[in-house]
Each structure stands twice: as C-alpha cells, then as structure tokens.
Amino acid sequence: MHSTILAASLLALLFGPLAYAWLNRQRKLSAVLDGFVFLSIGGIVLLEALPEAVHHGGLLAWIALAVGFFGPSIAERLLHHAARETHLATLLLGGFGLIVHATVDGAALSEPAHTGPGLAIAVILHRLPVGLAIWWLLRPTFGLRVAWMTLGCMLAGTVLGFSLGDTVMAHGTTPLLAVFQAFIAGSILHVVFNKPHLGDRYAVDTHAHVSPRYEGLGNALGLAVVVAVALLHQDGDAHGTGALPWGRFLDLALISAPALVIGFGLAAALGAWLPSTPLNWLQRGPQLRQAWRGMIFGLPLPVCSCGVLPVYRTLVNRGVPGAAGVAFLVATPELGLDALLLSIPLLGVDMTIARVLAAAALALAVGWWVGRQIEVHAAATPAGGCCATEPAAQVPAGMQRFTGQLDELLRSTGPWLIVGLLLAAIVEPVLAHTPLLGWPDALQVLCFAVIGVPVYVCASGATPIVAVLLAGGLSPGAGLAFLLAGPATNVASFGLLASLHDLATARRFAVGMLGGAVLLGWLTNVALGGSSGFQAPPLPHEHAGWIRWSCLALLTTLLGLAMLNHGARRFFSEGLRGEHSAHVH
C-alpha cells in the first residue's frame, strides 16, 4: 500500500513536464498555465508551507519571509547591473526550496507519520502543480537540463524522505530550518507574483489579443486544487504541526462576510449616486473649518489607501485648499463604510467608536497643521465636479454605474481583504509566542504605530489582523495606532506630498501622522483600560448560520467574478500595489 502511494506521488511530479509541453504551445493555453500556477502554488505556499514555518520559527520566520519576497526587488533597484543575476539566484532558491519540500512530502507519506488516506491524497494532489511549477520556473531560463536535474532531485528527495520518515520529520521542525523555509517561501512567492523569468511570454492584455478570462480559467483550476488540498488535510496533518489555518480562515471569513456585503453595497451606491461636491464648499471658511469639511467629505467615501492618492492629486490640481485636501487624504483611507461595518463584529462596539472618533480627530488635526502651510494655486474645475476624471457623458447611469463602482471597490479593496484574512489566520496560532504582546502598553502603541507607517494596507484588510491581535492580548491603543497609521501613511503618500508640494510638507505629514497615532493610542488605552482591562470580542469557532454562509457565498462569487474577468495576477497586482486608479464621481 505504501509503495503504491510513493509511486503515485512520483508520477504526480512527472505530470509537470507533460502538462507544460501541452499548455505552452500557444498564448491562450499559456495564459491558462500562468493562472493555474499563480493561484495553486501561491495558495499552497501561503496556506500550507508558511503557517508551518511561522509555527516553528516565530517572528524570525516572518522577517525571513519578507526578505525572501521583497529582497530581490530591493537588490534589483540598488544593483541595476546585477538584476539578471538576482533573478537567477531567486529562481534557483525557489527550485531548491521545492526539493526540500519534496523530501518533507516523502516523509509525510511514510509510517508512522502517515495518519489517514486523506493526507496521502492531499500530498499527491498538491504535487501536480508543484511538478508543473518546476517547468514553469526553470525551463524558460535554464533549459531542459537544469529542469530535469531539479525534478530528478525532487524525485530522489521524495524517496529519501519516505525512507527516513521519522528522522526527516524530527529535523524538519527545528526553528532554524523553519526560518529558512520561510525565506524560501518568500522567494517562491516573489517569482510567482512577479514572474521575472518569463518576460512577456505570458502577457495577458489587449495587445496580445488574449482575454484575461483564459488566465481566470487557470485561476479557477488552481483554486480547485487548493480547496481540495484543504479539505483533504482535515483527514490528517501532513507535517504533524496542526498549524494549518484553514479553519481559522473560514471562521474569520464567515464573521466578516455579512458586514462586507452590506458595506460593499452601500459604498457602491454612494459612489454611483452621490452628487458631486462643488469646490466652493471645501473652500469656505477658515482653515480649521476647511479641514473639517475635507474630513467629513472623505470619511464615508468608498476609496481605500491604494486609490486615494490620484484623487488627492486631482483635488490639489483643481484648487482645493491645503487643509481640506490633507484632511481628505488622511480621512478617506482611514475608515470607509465597509471597514466601519466590519469593525463592529470583529473589534466590538467600544473599539469601533474609538476608531471612528480617532480617525476623525487625526484627519482634522493633521489636515489643519500640515495643510495651513501649503500654498494653494487656483485651477479651473472641469465639468462634472471636483473629482470627475472623464466627461460626464461617458459616465454610465443607473445600475451600470452601480456595478462599475462595485467592480472598482472589489478590485481595490478585495486583494487587501484576502491578504488581511490570510495573515490574521496565520498569526493567531503563534500569538502566544510573540514577545511584542508582553511589552508595556505604551511601548506597544509606539511599536505598532511605527510598524503601520511603511505598511501599505487597506482599512478593511487591517481590521481582521487587529481583531486577532486584540484577542491575543494586544492593547486596544496599539491596535488603534496600527489602524490609524497603516491605511493613510506609506512611502507612496510621502512621495506624492513631496512632489506636489515640498519635502518639508511630507516630513510634517509623517510627524503628524505618527505622533497623532501614538497620542490617540495612549488615550485609547486610558479610556478602554489597556491590555489588562479591555475585553476583546471573542472570535467564535462554532458553525455559522445560513445568513453568514449565504453572505460568504455571495462575497466569494463577487470576488471570483472580479478575478475571472481581470485575472488573479492583475487583480492582486493592481490592488496591492495601488496601480489601479480610483474615481470618485
């Protein structure tokens, strides 16, 4: 029986070259292949390999993951002459990581590590995309010889792991190896996400006359593999850790789904039918009143952190006063309707009220302090309102405009929601081992405010992360500081302020945001009792009712259609990098 399982796992790897040869013959099939590898390998790394590495490696594993994912891009920018060498090294690291993973897979199939038939099927099933990924990663750059050598090493590693099951499993759970595996996971995600080795061979755009739906078809097949592996893992744990976050991810998704469905619907309706706000309303009164109006105008708008920057540029170019513009820049990404409704079940009523008041106060204070020193240049306002980005005649009406706004929201906010839920599900099991939660409350606030400054995260995506941290013992002020600093501050916002105004304005904005987030975090701890007195709402594990399941099904369908229509790579790239433009009509 065990020899049959081993043989099946080896054949699953050998499926890769055959599938690659068939799918790589034309652009449409190449797009299907690209979509399949992107979602299947990305999902397996994020929801299988990474949680195990974090479980055993702790905070160092997170750092190693970040180095593996961002390191190649940083090295390429610093060492322009070594860009190709950086890509080659990243590819080889990814191949080596898959060899190590194949060895652990072999050990997972051996006695006594093997705990059920579901485990064996899960391991065999996820080796289908892994074998395909070897050819997708290495064949275009290194040729057949290196690809076959790597695949041969994976086959040998599988047999070795199967023969030395207990020994491999014992050494596979050491903290040092876990940190290394997290680094490799980051490297693989970098290659899968950016595909630097393929050039434009798999380009899916209008110029190539390849519909994004071909990539979407591959995404659907890849997602099916990931879901099947998740379900089969319930019959056993491939690595003996019990750390896989599937159940927690589902719990968080079920808790969040009703609020997100309502929030997306209201936000899309607001964006579709809210009348354009005239410039003279924002220009009236003294600077403090202008900051107040910019804050009021920005707080409910359905524009997240990745979309507010082009809107702010438009407002500045059309003569909006500095106080109103900066207050809008802070308030808009801090708290939209979706994030507000999501905060109530995840953070509790008290924390939600604190979040709303703090976001308003921070936007008002920073808008007035920074904006009063910005010189305003009058500009003509085009027809269609202060935020119009195209002629009014081209704007669709009625339900077409509503669906357009909904698609815009899903593309700008959806990727951050998915990433936020994934990170929250992965973080929860290791909270007990996180030293940050044992620090004094005041130091926690400062630390999480500083962490939030460079992080490019949507308000809705940050909410489940903070909810899990609060449940694990984080002080409410520290969570609030992250929720304030994360969505509204990042390198892109500093760069925009420096280019539109001057470097001093960008520095004042950074100081105001960081100082304000810390001060409001400390005040929140005083008001809510700090980590010792604050009672975070429980995150239930029980089965949800039909309403939550229905909302989750609807939300999954909407996100799935957005990925199918645009392709998952473009969906995540534009959302996470802020490349997709937001329009507020």
What do you see in this structure?
InterPro entries: DUF318, UPF0718. This protein has 585 residues and is an all-alpha fold. The chain has two domains: 2-243, no CATH class; 251-577, no CATH class. It is built from 24 helices and no strands. It has helices at 2-23, 27-57, 59-78, 83-108, 117-163, 165-171, 175-194, 212-233, 246-273, 279-283, 287-298, 308-317, 322-334, 337-347, 349-371, 398-427, 441-452, 459-471, 476-488, 491-500, 503-528, 530-533, 546-566, 568-577. The protein is globular, with a radius of gyration of 25 Å.
Q: Which ranges are low-confidence, i.e. pLDDT below 50, for 5 or more consecutive residues? A: 200-207, 238-243, 379-395, 581-585
Shape: globular
> How many structurally independent domains?
2
Mean pLDDT, as a whole number?
A: 77
Helix-and-strand structural type: mainly alpha
Helix content: over 70%
Q: Count of DSSP E strands?
A: 0
Strand content: under 5%
Counted by DSSP, the helix tally is 24
The biggest beta sheet is recorded as: none
Task: Please write the string of helix (H) and strand (E) elements.
Answer: HHHHHHHHHHHHHHHHHHHHHHHH
Beginning-to-end CA distance, first to last residue: 64 Å
Keywords: Cell membrane, Membrane, Transmembrane, Transmembrane helix
Organism: Abyssibacter profundi
Subcellular location: Cell membrane
Protein name: Permease
